[in-house]
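Request: When convenient, would you put together a sequence paired with its structure tokens?
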Amino acid sequence: MEPFGPINFYAAIPWLQESDVEAGKGFFEIIFSGGIVGILIIILLLTLSILSAYLVIDHLLTVRRKDLMPDGLGERVRQSLMGGNIADAQTACRENPSFLSFVLMHGISELEFGWNSVEKSVEEALAEQSARLFRKIEYLSVIGNIAPMVGLLGTVIGMIVAFQNVAATQGTASAPQLAEGIYQALVTTVGGLIVAIPSIGAFAVFRNRIDQLVAEAAFQAQHVFSPLRRKANKASKTNRPAQQ
């Protein structure tokens, strides 16, 4: 024989009756107990989650090395320029539209003006394209910052509902009545964090990937136009003794 029988919480706490728990509201009814504002918060969180998932999938399919940095493009353009075939270099870039081809085309367009113009044009193209890519993934960061604020708004509304029940019953509100507002507050908070955490994590991953690709594009552009830079350096060294 057990020294203690099962504990009856309903008998231990007189104002917590089993009938009140069994008569508790359903999940969605509690979520939407905040009225039209509560419904809008849930809809907004769902919209943000769908948008975040769409952006992650889109970036996985587009922010890829093979799309931004086609294999062999840099070497083909380099060989064409070394052979003096500028038209073939331009054709190679047009046939492979990408981050790298955009940068190389800007450099090729300034060949007639010398190395300094080419270098400046390449740097401007790199800055423009990298800014475009960063703007593209910036929406994930925005969602990651907005979602917790939306969840916090739901938390505040849930607490208002809980204290409203206390005020309406003049302090005699039962635990289930108070739990409705608190439950709503916790659910919206969790919902906001569930949307925010993956969004911020994905933003960090894509940002690092873009940083790596931009650095690689800069290296390849320097490699492609290095013969022109060497010629410019040789010409400058040859002109110095003549001037002296």
